[in-house]
Write a structure and sequence with these properties.
Blueprint: H1 2-27, E1 37-38, E2 47-53, H2 60-69, E3 74-78, H3 80-85, H4 87-95, E4 99-102, H5 115-131, H6 150-157, E5 162-163, H7 169-172, H8 176-186, E6 192-195, H9 204-218, E7 222-224, H10 226-231
Parallel strand pairs: 1-5, 2-3, 2-6, 2-7, 3-4
Helix pairs in contact: 2-9, 8-9
């Protein structure tokens, strides 16, 4: 009886450890099992990549002039069904010379999905990005940064990196001042910053973007796209 109970306890512990390991792998910002992943770039140059997830929405009309004011480049990871609803906003991003990345078609978590589902989510969005006029390399970012096996394997087969981040002020703070203080304490050359400004109607996210542009510009940083940042990696 005791041996059987011990086996049950050991089995439960092993199961827990496996599930915990899968959870950590799914949410890892700097590691995956297949292919390349970039959450920051090791460089001595004072450059950072500002990235915006979701949309496009009408908030693009406020973000683009702000970037232009600081002569800053950024990467917009867009959702396919939002591009379909707001094609003109996607075209404005292209016309402004900014980078567009793929953030799936439906923004559902890309975990435990079939190969055909992964393929459809990515390729439908790629087509919409091209239809908007974007000619550059299309980077990919998984919704909520979550990935396990199928998604990284697909990207690996198609020679595409997973792009995550190492600075995420929205995750930890709601107050603009706190977000800026967090960025100031954690920023370093080659950082990739994640912001979610597309559905904000309060103006707080726009204030955060402006604050980051102002703060880091004054510290001598230049804002580049993710593709540009990757090319500046120290050899």
């Amino acid at each position: 009886m005791k041996k059987r109970l011990l086996k049950i306890i050991v089995s439960i512990v092993i199961l827990f450890l496996v599930l915990y390991g899968l959870y950590k792998l799914m949410n890892a910002r700097s590691f995956q099992l297949f292919g390349g992943l970039t959450n920051e770039v090791h460089t001595n140059q004072k450059v950072v990549a500002l990235t915006f997830d979701d949309g496009p929405t009408k908030n693009v009309d406020q973000i683009l002039p702000l970037l232009d004011q600081y002569n800053a480049k950024a990467t917009f990871f867009l959702i396919g069904n939002e591009i379909k609803k707001n094609p003109e906003e996607a075209k404005k991003i292209v016309d402004a010379g900014q980078q567009i990345g793929n953030h799936t078609y439906s923004h559902k978590r890309m975990v435990l999905k079939s190969p055909s589902y992964v393929k459809g989510e990515i390729e439908k969005t790629d087509k919409l990005i091209r239809k908007a006029g974007y000619k550059g390399e299309i980077d990919f970012r998984p919704p909520n940064g979550k990935k396990l096996f199928g998604l990284p394997y697909y990207l690996h087969k198609h020679y595409r990196d997973t792009i995550t981040w190492n600075i995420e002020p929205d995750t930890f703070y709601t107050n603009t001042a706190d977000k800026l203080n967090y960025v100031k304490k954690n920023i370093k050359p080659g950082s990739i910053i994640l912001i979610h400004p597309m559905y904000d109607k309060t103006g707080k996210e726009l204030a955060t973007i402006k604050g980051i542009l102002d703060l880091l510009s004054n510290e001598g940083y230049k804002f580049v796209t993710v593709n540009e940042l990757q090319k500046l990696k120290d050899k």
